[in-house]
């Protein structure tokens, strides 16, 4: 457990997964930037309040109001007093009024409410970044404000490196871990360490596609033929079907070989054509 | 700008880049988990206080105390009273005492201080995730607590998809954006939109390696031969050296073509050999 020390320290942000279940989030403003904030918060289970005169609503914000009336409370007016912050757990401003932004940030700071003001990055408690989501899997890419456009490019690159079954694999592994706690209850201590060691080994032994394909029956077999016998079973042992994946994983080389062979044959054919003509 | 609405909403965390420059972070505990918290916070510029009896310090925590005496204040004692939270902007607990954790979380909640307790996930304001850092580029992978081991595997996959020059590219683009603001000052409005449009086009036209290789002279040429003439210059136009990368970027197809051609020639040769023999 005594892992090496990363020399790449200092001057960064603390990337965290903030919990907003049943929390209240106030979004001041209703324009295009505000609509991006609404979307960010809709990812969570927070209760959202949008404060903006109707004439300031972008088409996208209006669409969110139509689609999620149960999650968004809409107040058709401007920000008036510190009372607006009552009961709020987070505040996001996206208004075309720098003075108002500054004022709201000050109020939030006094009330110790985390705040992000789109137009005053220096005073924000936190920033947003490019996001990828696949069920329980969430990935954020932050350039610490230095290259918002590049983070979109890096996001594409990362999306391309994922198979698309990671979210499902994580969900299934989450279920397996719950089942494991039924077989071996107890928080922390020896039981916790034993469970963690076994799960780590299983994760090293199985791949994402295999985890994603687990069903209830297979999980039961993993527990009974694996955990109960103090070992980590292989995928095929517990009913997993050998996939064509083993073949397609090497597809670039296979197709390369195929093209080469076809070219070889083409070369032969051209030569034999020449040969025939010569006769 | 009216981007489509992501249907993948609800039940997630809000992934954010929290700002800790000149903020105070209290870490209660000094064991192995606490040392991971210390490392997470060292990524930022926060001032860290570690509160733990010396006998509870892990080798790794001790190493951090030795390496970063200017960033970490160490208090050799247990948590005693709410006064410990005075002036703190964030609190992380990693102690083998569930009751103490609960108590500290309660105090933080009252004082509205963001808190993470390693042993009580349900009460945390935020979670940590697997992290990748390359200078200004920071990436976090969160499985929302469902598969910590899988996030390590996804981290490896993502690291493999990056070239390693993304951080440098972001840093250089950050410098170019500063320079752009010298040529075209003004916050927001028409100037902001014009700058953004030009930067977006440049980002679509150049790749990461090209941005990473920019020097001061090249940035000046980009501004004078590009921005000043209302166009986006290509990399080679402003002194960028054509890299073997231009070739290797297409290497799968090029090498495929090469192999095919060689095979074609081999086919021809075998045929001509047959032809020669026939004669």
TrEMBL record, chains A, B:
It catalyses: precorrin-2 + NAD(+) = sirohydrochlorin + NADH + 2 H(+). The chain crosses the membrane at residues 254-275. Keywords: Membrane, Monooxygenase, NAD, Oxidoreductase, Porphyrin biosynthesis, Transmembrane, Transmembrane helix. SUPFAM superfamilies: NAD(P)-binding Rossmann-fold domains (SSF51735), Siroheme synthase middle domains-like (SSF75615). Residues 167-233 form the Siroheme biosynthesis protein Met8 C-terminal domain. InterPro entries: Met8-like, Met8_C, NAD(P)-bd_dom_sf, Sirohaem_synthase_central, Sirohaem_synthase_N. Residues 134-159 form the Siroheme synthase central domain. It holds the Pfam family Sirohm_synth_M. Its EC number is 1.3.1.76. It comes from the Eukaryota. One of its GO terms (molecular function) is monooxygenase activity. Pathway: Porphyrin-containing compound metabolism; siroheme biosynthesis; sirohydrochlorin from precorrin-2: step 1/1. It is an enzyme of class 1 (oxidoreductase). NCBIfam families: cysG_Nterm. This is precorrin-2 dehydrogenase.
